[in-house]
Amino acid sequence: MPVLDGIGATRRLTAEHPGVAIVVLTTHVDDNSVLDALRAGARSYLTKDADRTDIARALQAAAGGLTVFDPRVHDMLLAAAAAPAKPEPCRPAPPDGLTHREVEILGLIARG
Fold this sequence. Notes:
Layout: H1 6-16, E1 22-26, H2 31-40, E2 42-47, H3 52-63, H4 71-82, H5 100-111
Parallel strand pairs: 1-2
Helix pairs in contact: 1-2
């Protein structure tokens, strides 16, 4: 697409026509592409190796408010959802009874 990529087109279409159901048909199956499309408002996500039956099913489902994913995308999303959450790094307690905010301000003062 020479002027706007699929994600941009999806964002624009959903912003200008909130009732529209977008079905993405692409070659990309990586995490970022799928998540960017869904965040932009795509209802369904298929790869270009989908046959016409799959595409017709996805279009009908999207028009009915349902979602259809390519099997590889579906597996990827399930694996990502099942993955354990990354623990947040533990911040050590500030010295001498200071709060974290006080330590932050002292650091800013030290940097000028």
